[in-house]
Each structure stands twice: as C-alpha cells, then as structure tokens.
Amino acid sequence: MKVTKEGLVFSPPKRNKIRNVPLPDRVAHVLKRHMETFPPVEVTLPWLRPDGPLVTKRLLFTRLDGAGAVRRTDFNDRTWKPALVSAGVIPAPRPGERHQAAREQGMHALRHFYASVLLDAGENVKVLSAYLGHSDPGFTLRVYTHLMPSSDARARKAVDCLYEGTDPAPDGPETAQRE
C-alpha cells in the first residue's frame, strides 16, 4: 500500500518485489491471537494509482476504529514513536511539536532489527538479501555489515554451542589421583 496525494492505493511492496519470508511458529501464534481479537477487515482501494481499478483485500492490521488501512506515518507517529519514548530510546517531542523525522527511528528500524537478528543467528547473506528484496547480496552486505557479529564473537559462540549442555569433569589434580 502506498500514499498518494489523492489518498491510499494498493500496490506491490517496495521496488515491486514480492518476498517470501518464513513465519516463525511463535510469531504465527501471536498473529493468530491478534486475528481472533481483531478479525481481518475487508478494505477496498484503487490498484497502483488513484484512478486504478478497485481491489478488495483483507487487512490484518487496520485503524483502531476499523475504518480502513493504517498509514505508515500514522503508525509511526501514534504507536511506534510513543513506544520508543516510553522505552527511553528517543526523547519526547516538545509540546505542540511532532516527533523528529528520522528514518532510523521509524518503522524502517524494524527492518534493520530483523536483519540484525538473522545475521547474528548466522543466516546466509544471500538468503537475507532475498528476504529483504535486494537483488544483490553485495548491497545487503554493504548496508548491514555493521550489524554482523565480529569473528571473535562468532568463534566464541560456535565453541560455546558445541559444548552447550555438557558438564565438564574436573581436570585438576584430583582427577589424576582417581585414575
């Protein structure tokens, strides 16, 4: 969905790329509970441009009054940024002013969070690139390389995982005396 001067229209995601992203079981469970509490709402909007053919889609997230689609800017200003203020991540705006318009403080930060979680877990950069809709994994590396764990951290984590759940026997002088 995108915002035009004339209003909202349905459209493909950024750069017209459809993405297939795995849905973890825990997220699916939370999404199912959300859908039980807030059933999907049918919303009809034009396709691609304000004078485009009308298309009806069932949206999982709608305005609180149930009257239509949530605009990204509304979510940023009314939900996301107040949550960041409550968490002490960003300062509250001065009375009568809006939150600072910073990309790293908006919903785009969720994209970076997703990428950082997958990179930290060791996900393949080529796969992550496809999830993010990048046509070039090199671009993904250039943008997100600062989020990758250091080699030292990866090495420590790999060895820790190897020995996870083991109870190492003492290897001091007592061990040698028992043999």
Can you tell me about this structure?
With about 180 residues, the protein is mainly α. It folds into 2 domains: about 70 residues, no CATH class; about 60 residues. It is about 40% helix and about 10% strand. The strands form 2 sheets. The chain has a two-stranded antiparallel ribbon with strand order 1-2. Strands 3-4 form a two-stranded antiparallel sheet. A hairpin with a 2-residue loop joins strand 1 and strand 2. Helix 4 packs across helix 5. It starts with a strand and ends with a helix.
**Major sheet summary line:** 2 strands, antiparallel
Q: Which spans of ≥5 residues are poorly predicted at pLDDT below 50? A: none
N-to-C span: 71 Å
The total beta strand count reads: 4
Q: How much is the average pLDDT?
A: 84
Q: Please count the helical segments.
A: 7
What level of helicity do the residues show? 40-55%
Helices and strands: which structural class?
A: mainly alpha
Taken together, the total number of domains comes to 2
Tell me the Rg in angstroms. Answer: 23 Å
H/E order of the elements? EEHEEHHHHHH
Strand content: 5-15%
Can you list the strand order of the major beta sheet?
A: 1-2
> Quick one: overall form?
globular
